[in-house]
Amino acid sequence: MTAGRAHSRSDLLRLGFADIDRAVDGLAELGEVGVRLLAYLGRTADPDAAVAGLVRLAESVDDRDALLESVADDEGTAMRLLRVLGASTALADHLANHPEHWRELTDPTLGSTRPAAYWLRDRLLRAVGADPDAVAPVATLADGEAVNALRVEYRRLLLRLAARDLAHDLGVDDAAAELSDLAAGTLEAALAVARQRVGPESADVRLAVIAMGKCGARELNYVSDVDVIFVHEPATEGADDAAVGRTAVRLASHLIQVCSDHTAEGTIWQVDAALRPEGKAGALSRTMTGHRGYYERWAEPWEFQALLKARPVAGDLELGREFTAMVEPMVWSVADRPGFVEAARAMRKRVVDHIPANVVERELKLGPGGLRDVEFAIQLLQLVHGRADEQIRLPTTLSALARLIDGGYVGRPDGEALHDAYAFLRKLEHRIQLHRLRRTHIVPDDEAALRRLGRSLGFTKQPDVNLVRTWEHHRREVSRLHQKLFYRPLLTAVAQISGDEARLSSEAARARMSALGYDDPAGALRHLEALTSGMSRTASIQRTLLPAMLQWFAEGADPDAGLFGFRRISEALGSTPWYLSTLRDEGEVSERLAHLLATSRYCTDLLEREPQGVRLLGGDLQPLESAVLVDEMLATAQRQETLEKSVRSVRAVRRRELLRIAAGDVLGLTDVADVGRALTRLTDATLEATLAVTEDAVRRQRGLDRTPTRLAIIAMGRYGGFELAYGSDADVLFVHDPVPGADAHAAASYAKAVFEELRRSLASPGPDPALVVDADLRPEGKQGPLVRTLDSYAAYYAKWSHVWEAQALLRADAVVGDRGLRDRFTELIDPLRYPAGGLSEDDVIEVRRIKARVDTERLPRGADPALHLKLGRGGLADVEWTVQLLQLRHGAEVTGLRTAETLAALDAATEAGLLEQADADQLTTAWRTVSRVRNAVVLARGRAGDQLPSDPRERRAVAGIVGYPLDHSDEFINDYLRVTRRARAVVDRVFWE
Predict the structure, then answer these.
(1) pLDDT tens-digit profile of 117-175?
(2) Does the pLDDT of residue 3 top 60, yes or no?
(3) Is the confidence at residue 500, as pLDDT, over 70?
(4) Of 691, 755, 680, nearest in space to 716 by CA
(5) Whether the Cβ atoms of residue 155 and residue 163 lie closer than 8 Å to each other
(6) Which residues contact 839 (CB under 8 A, 6 or more apart)?
(7) What average pLDDT does range 832-861 have in this prediction?
């Protein structure tokens, strides 16, 4: 050998050789040709194996010079041959045993033309001496010769395919399709050998071979069991059915043996007929009638899932097409079966659970994030939605995925990620199997094998590391998307709807909506047509969503309103990219939205004002803390140019949070006491942020460098008690305290200007719900000044304070504004609301007199005292006045009573022995029940009201929000009356004595 730069050790290492000494020896045996091939060898999966294979082939071939000259002079031949030798030791062995086959790789058309299925069939049939043009070809070679000839021809054609795949970057779909066509031709040739073995009796049988699984879908691996089902019929009328059946079984058995047996030329692959009716225990072949009877009566859902990929590939193709036409309607109706989706998910879980623990992380096919996750997710989507959409009824995984993307069933980003992952995993699977032509799906863990695989897939730098990194990335993506698609709640909902209903045809939709309880099926149908008409992607996704959503709307109190609200929101969001994909993909969003729209006019109104709020429904809907809201409100408000825009941005955040709270309430996720606290914290944040931006604006308007007075807002009433309802005003007191040296008149004018502007801006009409800030509880009521100094409050309370004002101050909570001023105000009022020594008897009588007057004069004319939520018997006023009387009488000595919250005061009174536990429980139950119902009235009607609605639909909605079935509104009323009646008995004893 002439040593040269091309043969330096560093060059060989750089090109990817691992065993340098052996490589040098091998290249020396090839002479100058070896030097000329170095660049090509560096592009193979395993340069060492490629050199060794070429040396071995050169030793076996009849014309060594012709071989070496061809690979040296023709780059196409060199790349095809060397890449095969570097990637597959099994095909290198084949070439060593059949060296003449190297000339197959000189064909210049290999890189540009995929052989047709009929051409492959022709080659394989001729190999066994059968006539490809015969109706039922029969092999003519001697049996053993035919079996070996079939194996040799199969390997020859496989060699051509592998060369095209490795050297010309054949797409994974193209390679799988050609492998499937090659398998179909092999089955046909094996059947020809089987006919020869059976003899003349074979002519009595029409036998069709139905490919299943990957072969049926034309996505076969290099080495895989070929799953089949056999179906037969007599070739002539009047034939003995039993004899025909026996002959069909003999033909099928021989076909399996021809493909599966080991001979001197090895084996091809296993033919697996276990997917037939009754599995391995069932007859190997059945007639059409036998198959039909089994599938109609006994087949499990998974068997129809398998039939999704059925395709006639050999034998009597006409009979095979009759078989697939027979089972197709059964396949596309299997999702109608109860529990189908759950059964499919359980089957996938069982597969994963049975993978040995030591290989589960390297299982490319069955493991988490593997090929089966992609295939099962796509098949489940097809079977559920394919009942109504024939466009997605394709057997090939990637083709079906493309149709699912086009139809809007899978989002484009998700679909593209799934496509890329599946294509990579299939290509990796092909390269693993091609090495030794063995059926395996385990990714090796040794460095040399990973390096070879990485190089075969185009990774030139650190091929083993980059291969594993890419594989892990795609596996994570598949796991994520499998969970998202396979466990999509919408699938379960749609599967519960029959295929006819899922199609949403006009007649079926009208009948279904009438049956579901829509009052105006014709109007609902117009909404439906507006949402689903046309060929746009939006319309496609709506057609996916609406069968399930129609059902969910019907589970609400007003299905018609639900559908109409959904149409308005959908039209408002238009082509917003996230909207429909969120409803289709993300958890329970679509079901939650449907429930809100058909149950709550309040939520519907908020959503129509701000459709972007649909995003919230995918979260946990727990109310946010006040500090978080203040930070967000101020951050958005301070970016605005005017006070009006600043307050509008604050109100927009409030609107969104009202939706969050209301949605959690309607969906039963938030306790009634927590709803009151959440609404209170939201009001705190709204006032805090609005006060800050309003002060800034007034200071700028007046040219002030600093604030002339400290400002604070005192929450009163239900606001002060952390018990706000959706329809509540924010009752407040305004207080200010001039800074030292400030002019008293200027300070008062400033404070008044700030608070007046705050009230005006929050109550002004706009797209966001108004917040009415009510200061009527201030000293002297509406006749008194809007804002007072702390000293003015002190002087008033010292001279004029009445018991009713002390009672009102029980719920005062200084929450917004200057911290020091708030603390001093609290110190001022504590002696008033918790008087030392309690109330005098005259004051107790006065409290009762005022309560009696309120009960008599404020109950609306014609209102039912038993059903009025605030002033009715056992209602909110009864409970709260009872608690407040206890606070006034005992707050000075019982620390726990010094709270603005009703329920906390009840607990403290019980602990102090002022209330029997049973009485406290009755009052607590009544307060919680009535508060919950009061909120539910607003949520259902969309406006405030203290009377239980008389409209049956609104009453059903209220009952549903509170937690009763829609048809149990009478039970709801009876329970309400019982709770308030018992509370009123406690009020009679404790308050009125």
Answers:
(1) 999 999 999 999 999 999 999 999 999 999 999 999 999 999 999 999 999 988 899 99
(2) no
(3) no
(4) 680
(5) no
(6) 803, 847, 888, 889
(7) 88
Asked whether 831 and 801 are in contact (CB, 8 A), the reply is: no
d(CA 591, CA 583): 8
DSSP SS3 for 333: coil
Confirm if 159 and 84 have CB atoms less than 8 A apart.
yes
Residue with tokens 């070996």: 148
3-state secondary structure 369-380: CCHHHHHHHHHH
In 3D space, the residue among 595, 567, 722, 759 whose CA is nearest the CA of residue 662 turns out to be: 595
Q: Start-end ranges of CATH 1.20.120.330 in the chain?
A: 338-497, 837-993
For the segment 449-470, what is each residue's pLDDT rounded down to a tens digit? 999 999 999 998 999 999 999 9
Cα separation, 80 vs 167, whole angstroms: 5
Alpha-carbon span 824 to 141, nearest angstrom:
110
Give me the phi and psi of 188, to 5 degrees please: -65, -40
Distances (CA, A) of 320 to 138, 284, 395, 507: 19, 16, 16, 36
User: How many CA atoms, within 13 angstroms, populate the side-chain half-sphere of residue 544?
Assistant: 33
Fold of 169-331: Beta Polymerase; domain 2 (3.30.460)
From the list 743, 733, 725, the residue with the least C-alpha distance to 814 is: 733
CATH of 338-497, one of 1.20.1050.10, 2.60.40.10, 1.20.120.330, 3.40.50.970: 1.20.120.330
Please tell me the pTM assigned to this model: 0.76
Residue type, position 443, single letter:
V
User: Whole-angstrom Cα distance, residue 629 to residue 683?
Assistant: 10
Residue 363 DSSP code: B
- Rounded-to-integer distance, Cα 894 and Cα 904, Å: 13
Residue 814 phi, psi (nearest 5): -80, 105
Chain centroid offset of residue 534 CA: 26
CB 510 within 8 A of CB 521: yes
The Cα 326–Cα 136 span in angstroms is: 23
- Amino acid (one-letter) located at 737: D
pLDDT band at 967 (very low <50, low <70, confident <90, very high): confident
Asked whether 816 and 684 are in contact (CB, 8 A), the reply is yes
> E strands, 533-581, where?
none
Residue intervals of the chain classified under CATH 3.30.460.10 are 169-331
Asked if 366 and 429 count as a contact pair (C-beta separation under 8 A), the reply is: no
Alpha-carbon distance of 596 to 604, in angstroms, equals 7
Q: What is the mean pLDDT of residues 343-348?
A: 82
Nearest-5° Cα angle at 541, 536 to 545: 145
Fold classification of 837-993 is Four Helix Bundle (Hemerythrin (Met), subunit A) (1.20.120)
Q: Which residue has the tokens 């002696």?
A: 831
**Nearest to 288, CA basis, from 208, 228, 216:** 208
Q: Is 676 exposed, middle or buried (0-12, 13-18, 19+ CB in 10 A)?
A: buried
**Extended strands (E) in 657-774:** 709-715, 730-738, 773-774
β-partners of residue 311 are 211
